[in-house]
Every structure is written in C-alpha cells, then in structure tokens.
Specification:
Helix content: over 70%
Strand content: under 5%
Radius of gyration: 14 Å
Largest sheet: none
Order of helices and strands: HHHH
Shape: globular
Number of strands: 0
Distance between the termini: 20 Å
Structural class: mainly alpha
Number of helices: 4
Length: 107
C-alpha cells in the first residue's frame, strides 16, 4: 500500500473517530454527522485512487480543503486548540501532502 493511501486511511479513521468522540463527549450531533460524512468521503477517495486516480485525488483534496476551512473557523471562534486547532493542523497537513502528491501523479 502506498504512503498516500496509508495517510488517507489514517486521516479518514481520525475524522470518523473525532465525530464519534464529539458526540460522546458533547452530545454534538453535527460533529457526529460531519465526522461520518467526511470519513466516508475520504474512504471513497482512497478507493477511487485504485481505479481513477484523478477523481480520488480531487475528492480527498477537496474534503481536506473544506475541513481545513471549517476547523480554522472553529479555532477563530473558540480560541481553543482542542479539538479545532489540532484538527486544523491535521487537515492542513493532509491538504499539503495531497497537493504535493498531485505533482508526482501522471494524470
């Protein structure tokens, strides 16, 4: 399995887990719903990497871009590093990684 797929699997698991944790700790249904949706979209992107690499990369890059924006807005609103700041760093890191991987892919 490629490094890209491993990173994205971990990212998807963390987004799913984060949504569940947000629900368990704060009874936040939006966290649960968005965690599930973003995790599934990331997993679909990883699946697409096997058959349509351009579509897979576009999907995971888009999801990580949107999550970076969402977590930046939450951090600016709450000024609390946990969980918004940590998830912002994670999402921005994955976004940068995906963009760097685009350069290595022959589309």
């Amino acid at each position: 399995m490629s490094t890209l797929k491993i990173v994205l699997w971990i990212y998807g698991i963390l987004m799913l887990g984060g949504g569940v944790m947000g629900y368990v700790k704060a009874q936040s249904k939006p966290s649960l719903i968005m965690g599930i949706i973003s995790g599934i979209l990331i997993f679909v992107g990883v699946y697409l990497l096997g058959s349509n690499i351009k579509a897979g990369m576009m999907l995971v890059t888009t999801v990580s871009s949107l999550l970076t924006i969402v977590f930046l807005m939450r951090l600016l609103k709450t000024h609390a590093f946990m969980p918004a700041g940590m998830l912002l760093l994670l999402s921005a890191g994955v976004l940068i990684f995906c963009i760097s991987q685009f350069q290595n892919i022959k589309l």
